[in-house]
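Thread: quick sanity check before group meeting

JM: Hey all, I'm pulling together slides for Thursday and realized we never actually wrote out the predicted structure for the chain we discussed last week. Dropping the sequence here so it's in one place. If anyone has concerns about the input, flag it before I start.
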Amino acid sequence: MSTTPKTMKCVLATAAGKTELTTVPIPQIKKGHVLVKVKAAGICHTDKIVIGGYGAFPVIPGHEIAGVVVEVGEDVHNFKVGDHVGAGFYGGCCNSCSKCDENAWIECSENKGLGFQLNGGYAEYCLAPAKALSQIPKNIDLHEASPLFCAGVTVFNSFRNQNIKVGSRVAVQGLGGLGHLAVQFCKKMGYHVSVLSSGASKEKLARELGADEYYNTSNENWGDNVKEFGGFKCIMVTAPLASAIPNLLNALGTNGKLLLLAVTDPIPVNPYQLFTGNKSIVGFSSGDSRDATDTINFYNLHNIKTMYEKVPLEKAIESLDNIGQARFRYVISFDD
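JM (edit): ok, ran it. Output follows.
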């Protein structure tokens, strides 16, 4: 630790709606923890929710963290100095409650999320519980890897748990930070993938990412073409647009699932839409460190690519406020 400075720059959320760029002491190593020199931190819409009042203030936001291990605490045996690691919302569990018994680690009440209750990645260093971390292969650029710890694991882990028959027609609504990864993951898993997006401007990109079809949802009759093949078995909703939900439900086939992965306003649902065709609406909450490891490994094996724009720490909050303009993820860069 002799070469490690005493203080670090960070964005600190001091109270609901209030942030400041400041300097704080670098956290001291603790038992069961790892000190990570942050190299990249993805900017997620959920960070805005944390800053808006959901966080345990004061807190450093950021739950898409990628960096290099600089120190390991007592009882940490699976990480060493120099390892490339990442972490997301999951911060650890008790391994003894009913939710842990059901293997739902991320739902454990003891889970204190990085960037939520624990200090996260909008900082030069992050002290993380070892159980929250996943190894990142060194052939993956850390800026490319950081969004995988929320956007990536959310789309990969949620979809693989829906038990959709391989080869089925599925759709991704929205082509932003989550959507551009969802298209690639679903295609590499062996599905017939469509993209649903407003306007025609993203069709070329959608097909470059692997989409088989593109539906411009600005056209009132887009759903008529879907009915010709019986509807989608799953639609992944990655853009928070509540008004789109009724038409998306109509585009589901028999036993189809509407998989909600983005925060929306309350959604309008006519129960008859669910009764007809045995359809369902499903929510899914990201994944734990095991799921993140699976996501990273699948990503690496299948040559999937994150599309991102680097921003400095000083522009983190400005970029969060303008997150809809990112192509397709803003990533805070701590390049030396």
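AS: nice. The chain has two domains: 7-150+286-333, 162-283. The chain has eleven helices and 15 strands.
JM: adding both to the slides.
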